[in-house]
Amino acid sequence: MRRADRLVQILLLLRGRRRTTARQLAEWLEVTPRTVYRDMADLMASGAPLNSEAGEGYWLEAGFTPPAVAFSARELAALEVGARMLAAWADRDTAAAAQSALGRIHAVLGSSGLPPEPLYAPTAGNYPRERLAPLRDAIVSHQALWVDYRDENGRDSQRALLPLALFFWGDRWLLAAWCGLRLDYRSFRVDRLQSWRDTNLSCPPDVSLAGYLGHVDSDGRALAWLERHQRQPWHQE
Q1: What does the angle CA 85 – CA 88 – CA 90 come to, to the nearest 5 degrees?
Q2: d(CA 2, CA 29)
Q3: Confidence at residue 177, expressed as pLDDT on a 0 to 100 scale
Q4: DSSP conformation class of 225
């Protein structure tokens, strides 16, 4: 990353945060804390409204608006591919938002601003994408569901679930959940959910996405992924 880009990135990372240490910034930017200290000194010397306190970190004064973000050609291509995949496989609201964002990029750059991207995502056809939005809402609100589920052999069952996450596996979505019937973590294909409604489910207090990943992941790679994801600067609790 060029130094000028890094300085802008620091301002973006600090925006909306109460305190951020040099060590945190160094980890996110993949530089040394010493480099962060130099960058901070340069930003302050240039008039950026930065405050700092020993042991507490850095923060921006309220009301400061960082400069506009500029993307490289590869970053823009990645955004376009991501938008195409969401348009094909996400719920309708998310797909529409992705298409809208991509349309804004094209509108700003013009027809010659975005290089042709050869990666495409075929349309999902009659995939039941309308099921994704309510499941996502249940995950965010920690709402348990009573579901009717049909397994691969056509057998129906009813059970209470606490949804934890949705995972996309190339041609289908899986719902990670705590299952009140099995009293354990389970995965459920979204296209096999026949119906659901809100319900109350008493489950162990330590039920979590990390617990689910530890249950299904034998070599620890998924847990390592979750830990990295939650350390990323764009991940907000």
Answers
A1: 85
A2: 11
A3: 94
A4: H
